[in-house]
Amino acid sequence: MRNPPFEDAGLTEQLALFPQATAVPDGLQYVPEFISPALEHELIGHVSALPLQPFQFGAFEGKRRVASFGFRYDYTLQRLQPAEPIPLWLGPLIEKVEAHGGPSTRIAQVLCTEYDAGVGIGWHRDKPHFDRIFGLSLGSPCKFRFRRAVGEKWQRYTLEAAPRSLYMISGESRRVWEHSIPAVEAPRHSITFRTMADRKT
User: Which of 28, 61, 68, 166 could pair covalently with 34 via S-S, beta carbons 3.0-4.6 A apart?
Assistant: First the structure.
C-alpha cells in the first residue's frame, strides 16, 4: 500500500526544486518554507534550552548533542527504551507534520539535535523500529546526502535542505538508501519526527 499523500497539489512544483528530479530516491519528499522565520527562531530557543547530551553510540560519543522524547534507542542494550514525554511546545508542530503526512500519520518519537559548525552525521539508516521519518531543518542549510549500492558502485543523491524546510523519507529512501550529513558550515538545529513501524507478525 502506498503511503498517504504527503503534500497537496504543490507536490509537483516542490519536487521540481530537486536537481535531476529523475534521480530522487523513491519515497523522499521535500517541503520548502514549512514554517515561518518567527517560529524557526522560537523553536531554536526551545531546542537550545533542552538538557542536550552528546549522542551516545555504544561506547562512542558523537559530537552532536541530542534529546529524545517518546522513545530512544539504547545502543548498548540494542533495543528501544522509553524516553521523556514529548514536550507540550512541540504539540502544534507535530499536528502540522501529521497533517502533511496524511490521516494515518502518528508521530511517536521526536529527536532534537544541535550541530556546532564542523559537526555532521555519518552514513546510516534509522532503526527498523521506526517507519516514516520527517526532518525539520533550523538555523542553517545542510547537504542531506543519500547513497545506495548498485553492483560494485554507489548511486548517490544530495538534497540541499534549506532552513525551515521539511523532508520526509519513506519507502526505498528509508529502507534501501543510507543517508548522512557532512560537517555543517554554521551552527544548525534539527527536529526529527518518527512514526513507529508496524511490529505485528
Answer: 166
Q: Which of 124, 187, 134 is nearest to 165 (CA)?
A: 134
CATH fold of 11-196 reads: Jelly Rolls (2.60.120)
Residue with cell 507536490: 11
- How high is the pLDDT of residue 73? 83
Domain segments of the chain: what residues?
A: 11-196
Q: Report if pTM > 0.70.
A: yes
Cα 78 from Cα 147, distance rounded (Å): 25
Cell of 64: 552532536
| Cβ-based burial of 153 (10 A; exposed 0-12, middle 13-18, buried ≥19) | exposed
Residues linked to residue 112 through DSSP beta bridges, in sequence order: 67, 191
The H-or-E segment that residue 143 falls in is: strand 142-150
Residues in the chain with pLDDT < 50? Answer: 1-22, 201
